[in-house]
Amino acid sequence: MPRKTLFNYAKFVRHIRIRSLEWHLTKWVQHNAGYYINEDSPDLRKKVTIISQILLEHILRSTPTIYGLNVNSENYTSGSLTSAIRNVPSAKISLANVKIFTFGKIWTTMPRLFEILSTICYKINTLEICPSQDIKYTARLINNQINIKSLTLVDTPSIRLNRHETKNEYTWDNEIFSALLYKAKTVTRLTLKNIHLSSLKELNYFENLEELYITNYVGDISQKNFQDLSEISLKKLKNFFIISLFSETYLKNLCKFIKNSKELTHLKIQGCKLHDPDYSMTWINSLAKNNRNLVSYEGPIGSNDVVALWIFLDSCKSLQKLHFQCNNYNSFTSNKDLKSFDNILRELTRKQPVALRKLIVGKGWTVSCKGVEHFIKCRKNLFVPIRFEWDPHTVIIGNINELTKRYCGVINKVHKN
Known about the structure:
With 417 residues, the chain is an alpha/beta fold. The protein has helices spanning 18-33, 42-62, 80-87, 91-94, 113-117, 135-143, 175-182, 223-230, 251-258, 280-290, 306-315, 342-351, 369-382, 400-406; strands spanning 15-17, 68-70, 100-103, 126-129, 150-154, 169-170, 189-193, 196-197, 211-216, 239-244, 248-249, 266-270, 273-274, 296-301, 321-326, 339-340, 358-361, 365-368, 387-390, 395-397. The strands form 4 sheets. The protein has a 13-stranded parallel sheet with strand order 1-2-3-4-5-7-9-10-12-14-15-17-19. Strands 16-18-20 form a 3-stranded parallel sheet. The mean pLDDT is 90. It comes from Rhizophagus irregularis. InterPro entries: LRR_dom_sf (IPR032675). This is F-box domain-containing protein.
C-alpha cells in the first residue's frame, strides 16, 4: 500500500544492480509468505518478477539520473528492466548518463535490452559484456559510445565444461570485436576473462593501454597466444596480469612482451607450470633491467636465482609486494621435490628492501622457521611494517604456531590465492 515516507528514497538511486534486487526481493517474499517457499517455485518467481518491474519503474520515474547499471540476473526476471524502460518515458533521460554498464554472464538474457540502450546511452566509459550475446545490438551499443576507458570481455559457461572441450573462439572480424578495434585508442584498461581469441596481435591497436588482465579459469591460454604477446609493444602499460589454471607459461615470450613496458608497476604471472623453468634467472634479470618502476611482483623465481634477485632488489627500489612461486613447481610436484625458500629469504634479509610491505611464499617451497624469524627480526629493526604469508601447500620446517603467536599480526598462517 502507498505510504508517505520522510524521503523519496528512489530519487537518490544512482546505481541499479538487477541481480541484487532479485536476491533481496526473493528473501523478502519468502519472509513475508509465512511458510517456506522454495527458490525454484514458479509462484515465487512470478511474484519477484512482478515486484521487480514495479520497483524498477518507480526508480526510473523518480531518479534524475542513473550512473551505473549492472544487469546480471536470473533468466526469469530478464525482461523486467526492458519492460520498465518501455513503460516509463522519462527512463530515456535518467539512463542517458549511464557511465558503468555491466553485462557479463552468458546465461543471462535481456530481451531487446541492447537494442534499447544503443539508442539511449552514449557516455559509457566502463563496459563489461559477454561477446556472444546479442551481437548486432551489442556492437551498435559499442559504436555509439564516445569514450570507453575500461573494457571487460567475459565468457562464462552455464555448465562446467571439460577444459579440453571446444569453447567459443572469437576472431577480430566478429561484429563486436570489430567495433572494439574502432574504440581501441580510448581504452586504457582491458580485461579478457575466459575469452579464447584466435589472435592477440590486434592488441597493438590498444596503444594507450595502461592495464591488461588476461585470465582463464576454464581452459588453456594457447602457446600461439604467448607467441602473439611477444610481438606486441604496449609502451604505456602499468599493470599486467596473466593467470591460467591449466596453461603452461612461456617466460621467454613474456620477457619479450614486457621489455618495452618501462612504466610497468604491477606484474602477476600465474599458471599451472612453466614451459621454460630454466629461463627464470634471465627473466628476473630482465625485470631488473627494464622494469625498474615495479611496485608489486607476483611470479616465478628459481631457488638458486640469488644473484638475479640481488640485482632485482637493487634496481627496483619501489617494490612493496613480492609473491614468489617456485619456477619448477607444477600441480604434480610432491613434497620431497619442493625447493627451499631459505636462499631467497636470506637474500631478502640481507638486502632489506625498505619499501617492502608484504612477502608471500607461493607454491613449490619449503621454508624454515629459523629463516622466517631472522627475517622478521631484521625487518623490525627497520621500523617498517611487514606482512609475511605463505601458500597452504608450503611445507614449514619448525614450530610455526609458536612463531605465529610471538609475531601476531605480522605472520599469517594461510594465504589464499
